[in-house]
């Protein structure tokens, strides 16, 4: 479990570090006013950026357990831990709904 969390953290760091470069290269490639030779250089440079720095490789995980499924993105907790913390009253502003 710890290795998965470390791997995800590494991917997040790579994404944060290479995000600007990736966006710049993609915008140059998609711009039709720029000559083809420059676009080819940008494609080559884009391919040199590590794959793990892509946004798609980042997985939302629970910050307490490392669970990858059923994670609420607004608090980065799994549904199980979220329910436990709510029932203990540790999350402020959360009330049980009833109608």
Automatic annotation (TrEMBL):
According to the UniProt entry, the coiled-coil residues are: none
Q: Give the location in the cell.
A: Mitochondrion
**Any GO MF annotation of the entry:** structural constituent of ribosome
Q: Which InterPro entries match?
A: Ribosomal_uS14
Top-rank lineage group of the source organism = Eukaryota
Biological processes per GO annotation = translation
Q: Does the keyword Mitochondrion apply?
A: yes
Primary residence: mitochondrion
Q: Where are the transmembrane segments?
A: none
Return any one Pfam family short name.
Ribosomal_S14
Gene3D superfamilies per the UniProt record, alphabetical: 1.10.287.1480
- Write down any Gene Ontology CC term: mitochondrion
Q: Which UniProt keywords apply?
A: Mitochondrion, Ribonucleoprotein, Ribosomal protein
Keyword Ribonucleoprotein belongs to the record:
yes
- Family label: Belongs to the universal ribosomal protein uS14 family.
Q: What NCBIfam families has UniProt attached to this entry?
A: PRK08881.1 (NF006477)
What protein is this chain from?
A: Small ribosomal subunit protein uS14m
What phylogenetic lineage does the species belong to?
Answer: Eukaryota, Viridiplantae, Chlorophyta, core chlorophytes, Trebouxiophyceae
Query: What gene is this protein a product of?
Result: rps14
């Amino acid at each position: 479990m710890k290795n998965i969390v470390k791997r995800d953290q590494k991917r997040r760091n790579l994404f944060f570090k290479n995000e600007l470069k990736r966006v710049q290269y993609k915008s140059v490639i998609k711009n039709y006013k720029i000559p083809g030779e420059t676009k080819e250089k940008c494609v080559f440079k884009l391919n040199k950026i590590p794959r793990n720095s892509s946004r798609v490789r980042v997985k939302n995980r629970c910050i307490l357990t490392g669970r990858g499924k059923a994670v609420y993105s607004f608090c980065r907790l799994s549904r199980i831990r979220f329910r436990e913390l709510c029932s203990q009253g540790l999350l402020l502003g959360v009330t049980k709904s009833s109608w």
